[in-house]
Amino acid sequence: MQKIEIKADQFFELLKLKDTSMWEIFAQMIDGNEKEIIFLNHEDKILFNYILPTAQEKLEEDRKEFSKQFSEKLGSF
After folding, report:
1. Residue 37, helix vs strand vs coil
2. What is the DSSP string of 43-74?
3. Residues β-bridged to residue 4
4. Domain ranges of the chain
5. Which of 27, 32, 48, 70 is the most exposed place for a label (fewest CB within 10 A)?
6. What is the pLDDT of residue 61?
7. So which domain of life are we looking at (predicted)?
8. Per-residue pLDDT for the chain (77 aa), expressed as one digit of tens each?
C-alpha cells in the first residue's frame, strides 16, 4: 500500500483557493491501487488518516458516511 503524507493546513487552504472538495481530489487519485493518505499538522504529527479505496463506488460510500457523521457532530454543538 502506498503512503501519501499531506500537510493538512496547506491542503485545505489549496482546496479553498481552487474551490474544490477533497473528494474530487481523492477521486482523481484512484488508480486501482489502495493508498493510505496521512494528514499531518505543522509539527508533522498525524492528525488522521484515510485509506483511499480502489474504486469510485466505495469512495462515494465513504463520502456519504463522512457527511452523515460530520452533520451529526455539528448537530451536537
Report:
1. strand
2. TS-EEEEEEE-SSHHHHHHHHHHHHHHHHHHH
3. 37
4. 2-75
5. 32
6. 94
7. Bacteria
8. 899 999 999 999 999 999 999 999 999 999 989 999 999 999 999 998 999 999 999 999 999 988 888 777 767 66
